[in-house]
Amino acid sequence: MKNELVVQDGYVFKQETHLTVLKTSLFFAGDGFAVYDCKGQLVFRFDSYGPHTRDKDELVLMDPQGRSLLTLRRKKPSLHQRWEGFKGERTDGDKPMFSVKRSSIIGRSRTSVTVEVYDKPGVEYLIEGCFPQRCCKVFNSAKKLVAEIRRKVDPTTSVMLGKEVFMLCVQPGFDGAFAMGLVLVLDQINGENYFDSRTTEPAVHPATEDSGLASSVPF
Fold it and tell me: Please, are residues 185 and 19 in contact by the beta-carbon 8 Å criterion?
């Protein structure tokens, strides 16, 4: 997949990759995530602590060893909840690689988010769906699907798991670190809808392709 934004070369997968994302706190938006591959190995982590961290203006996506892969900084003031992404650990004077913002300030349950890439003319992304229900798709400028967020099904029971565990499906050639960075931003924009009882739970469908981590990921 050519001409896509790459934040970290090591996370550009050669084949479609299904990652399991575990929300490590159920009480505060952006309070922590752990991301595992199909073998149960930790791939990414995002840590924050306490009830006030949901208002933090800076998020850092790390590898399993705690090295900074991507920094996301809230841009203020912004009615569209704009965030900017920086490679690695951001320092003063660094230029952002991309920005993420809501397409509209009206409506919260349904997600429509645009991603603008700096210094790469013609490269942009659109995120559509409902993040609180863990149902979002990321499309590139050619309207090709590059990543998807969806509910996770336990392959042994065909039961859909809670929204604290979900799948991040990354297409070949797309950067998994960039995709997970978008998840962090979506959680900040929509996190307060996590327990929104007005939304309808999707029907349970049998797992046909996900060998999953339902029994190996602690939760």
Answer: no
- Between the CA of residue 65 and those of 22, 23, 26, 46, 62, what are the distances in Å? 18, 19, 24, 11, 8
Helices (H) and strands (E) in the chain, counts: 1, 14
Residue entry with tokens 């690695």: 88
Query: What does pLDDT average to in each consecutive run of 10 residues of the chain (219 residues)?
Result: 80 95 69 91 82 66 94 77 90 90 64 87 91 94 96 89 94 96 90 41 40 45
Q: What are phi and psi of 132, to 5 degrees?
A: -55, -25
> CA geometry: angle at 211 spanning 209 and 214, to 5°?
125
Residues 6 or more apart whose Cβ sits within 8 Å of residue 215: 154, 156
The pLDDT of residue 7 is 86
Residue 19 contacts residue 11 (beta carbons within 8 Å): no
Calpha distance 215→127 (Å, rounded): 30
Q: What is the pLDDT of residue 42?
A: 96
- Measured between alpha carbons, how far is 53 from 170 in angstroms, rounded to an integer? 28
How far is the C-alpha of 219 from the C-alpha of 213, rounded, in Å? Answer: 11
Inter-residue contact 216 to 47 (CB < 8 Å): no
Task: Report the C-alpha gap between 147 and 172 in whole angstroms.
Answer: 9
E runs forming strands in 63-131: 68-74, 83-87, 98-102, 111-117, 124-130
DSSP letter at 161? P
pLDDT given for residue 76 in this prediction? 77
